[in-house]
Structure formats: C-alpha cells, structure tokens
Amino acid sequence: xxxxxxxxxxxxxxxxxxxxxxxxxxxxxxxxxxxxxxxxxxxxxxxxxxxxxxxxxxxxxxxxxxxxxxxxxxxxxxx
Length: 79
Known about the structure:
Elements: H1 7-23, H2 28-56, E1 58-60, E2 66-68
Antiparallel strand pairs: 1-2
Helix pairs in contact: 1-2
C-alpha cells in the first residue's frame, strides 16, 4: 500500500498545479483536470490544517481529560 503524501508534498503539488495553470500553456482538457486535482488538494490541505488547529487548541487537565485551551484575555486598555 502506498504511503499517504505529507502535507508538504500536497502543498508542493498544489503550487505546481497553480503555476502550470497560471502559465496558460496547458491544453484546456489538461487544465480542467489539473484544476479539479488542485481543488481536491486544496480541500485536503484545509482539512489537515483544521485538524491540526483543533488538536493544538486542546490541552489536558489534571485528570488527563482533553479540555479546550483558553487564551488569556488581553488586559483591558481602560484599566
């Protein structure tokens, strides 16, 4: 079974597709195919980032349970 591409590999692939499409030297059929692949890669990358953000905004409490990480509130300028 093939290994799943890394986030970085997918991002590089998306950048390559964007560069090819921006060049305008791609036949229409290939451009449409590349566009569809780019959209799919973009959705994968967004999902990966959303999952990472969700993971990074949690912390463990003293009982070992995951709880949302609450950022300290900025001091009020009026204080």
